[in-house]
Amino acid sequence: MAVPLSRPTSPVMEVLRNRRFRAIWYVVNVAEVTRWMELLVSSLLVYSLTNSPLMLGLVLAFENLPRPLLSPFTGIIADRFDRKRIWFIALAIKLVAAVILLGLLVFGLIAAWHIFASMFAQGISRALEDPARRTAVFDIVGERRVVNALSIDSISMTIGRMAGPFAGGFLVEHAGYYWPHYAGYVWAYTVVVIMHVAAVYLALRVQIPSVEREWRVEPIWNSLGAAVRAALSHRQLVGMLFITVMINGLAFPSRQFVPAIGRDHLGVGETLVGILAAGEAIGQLVMAGILASVGTVRHHGRIFAAGAFLVMVASTIFVWSPWYFVTFLVLIVSGLGLSCFGTMQSAITMRSAPPEMRGRMVGLMSLCIGIGTPPGVLLIGWLGEVIGVQQSVSFNALACIAFSLPALFLTPLITRPSPPPPESQAARRA
Fold first, then answer.
1. What's the topology of domain 12-207+220-421?
2. Model pTM?
3. Which of 49, 151, 165, 216 could be 277's S-S partner, Cβ–Cβ 3.0 to 4.6 Å?
């Protein structure tokens, strides 16, 4: 009697059957819904208080400001210290900031600068969290399944980006009862605080493996310099990081102005603004599901570049449509590219470093993400007040395309397959 052959396990199921990965995944699901809900509610609140595109841009600027300041150091922290404890501290910072903001709303004392301070605290949390969480995922699933795991991670972020803005916009517009001031915002932030508490609780159940790494006592600038030198020796990584700076400075900040486009150009309320802000996430979700199901990926750079330029092109046109549904569709198409961009960005970064330097390399990537966003969003906001939000967004997106094109031809980002990950120092000596 023939023994039936077992069906091969799909890459997605192989990753999801990993108990340690699932524990991280549960926290990410809750935390990302909370993050995107809080960002939209804060943006709507600031725009309603100030009616200024520049002030609206400052919300995202303050959230991203800690990245260029702290990311190189948080990468080193992720390499040297307990990553579960780092992640727990990061989530606790978010909770404390949200509780303080809720208290100010309840007593009617809120001002724009309170929201900027809260967003700055959120940025500190993300700067701590990203290297610790992403390197933990790599160590749990291994190099062979890192693209699949990061794609699943991206799906969680995408679901959060879909559900969070919709929930936030709906509460702001329709929960305006039973409180004398800022009622919709009070109830929205109450939900935000509850979800932060849930994320902190779930993080207690996470188990991150300890990885043996060799350390020398050296000045921190030497450690940072080693990461920069390693990055400069990897030409594919150089191209990826350059485009990362450009797109985070000139294209991505345009999404922060969706509340202005929705209210002033399309003439819709907070609920539809929230749905519009979630549009890009639908495309992300579709593409993340595709990437999570693929087998071995050889040309990470090509997928990254295709996604990046799709986002740039969509950024030049989505602000001009006079029809809500067309604007929504353009943002969905942009989301397809964003998923390719984000997944391959992390994969290229972690594949380019030996295990003992992986956290620092993710910190360097975070630095490149954060260094462009604050000046970029301020530029778009300032130009938005001078020449209009639509003109400002399109001008910056076209500049992003022009500056990024040379990276495709001066680096092997799209011409060669990705090289294998380097070995650890111990493996090289063995």
1. Growth Hormone; Chain: A; (1.20.1250)
2. 0.77
3. 165
